Amino acid sequence: MYPLRRNRRLRINEAIRSIVRETIITPNDFLVPLFVVEGKGIKDEIPSMPNYFRYSLDLLENEVKELWTLGLKSVLLFVKVPDNLKDNKGTEALNPNGLMQRAIKTVKNACPDMLVMTDVALDPYSVYGHDGIIENGQIVNDNTAEVLGEMSLSHAKAGADFVAPSDMMDGRILTIREALEDEGYFNTGIMSYSAKYASAFYGPFRDALDSAPVDIQDIPKDKKTYQMDFGNRFEAIRETEMDIDEGADIVMVKPGISYLDILRDIKNEVDVPVAVYQVSGEYAMIKAAAEKGWLDHDQIMLETTTAFKRAGADIIASYFAKDIVKLIY
Ligand SMILES: NCC(=O)CCC(=O)O
Ligand SMILES: [Mg+2]
User: Fold this and answer.
1) Residue 243 in contact with residue 192, Cβ under 8 Å?
2) With a threshold of 0.95, does the pTM exceed it?
3) CB-ligand 1 contact for 279 (6 Å cutoff)
């Protein structure tokens, strides 16, 4: 007897494999995170993120033009705020002439059709490195959400297409939506980090922005009172559905590779686009192993990003976006 069905026939060569392949990534799948700093002529490599850089505004301009020519049409902006501008309430986040507001305008001037999304959270602006205002040793929820609403409005006024609240305060999507609607910013979208886990994979990002929680007495040492516990699954669906009810246009799962089950659950459950974030620690792990010659960098990059799409991601935020597009096109 022989096997009645020989599945290997569909794997015999690259031509047959490529015609039956179910999931293919393209430049349209990617959202490019960009780190911005004050100054001129700065292109600073982030030590724990090899070949990833912080740009001053003049060089940011060249970078976004290059992204555009590669077919990458969406960016997600993060700013590194100088220490002297940090406080407990994120006052600088509302400065109409702040670094984020200028960065938005810089990208729009360089590339008017580029989709500009902005990080909305207090941690880069907080002396304590937290996503919320601290009162009596606690991260307060509702007052923080108010500031996030004002921050979102400020980004919309500067020209952002989407705001991306990454903080995990309860109710902030509604607060942000109302703040935008009240001032007539009906078309400014919200991409909510709706299921963001308290993860050790964010380490290199906090180096990039100098935004890690500080080690001071009576200040929480981690973000576990607002970001999700990594043992939880159903909670991710609840969080995501609530954010959609409050007005989120796009929802997100973060981090990526350790949370593919969550990504698939959410994709099956909701009817809005779902994003995933392949975070800094995932990037650093792959870079480090590749540097040692232990893993094939390009193949791992292709495999992980394809896995996100297969698991249900409509949008992939990844520090590999540029490299992957150069690899596949
Ligand atoms: N809001 C952004 C993060 O919390 C971290 C992202 C990363 O680790 O790449
Ligand atoms: Mg929530």
Assistant:
1) yes
2) yes
3) yes
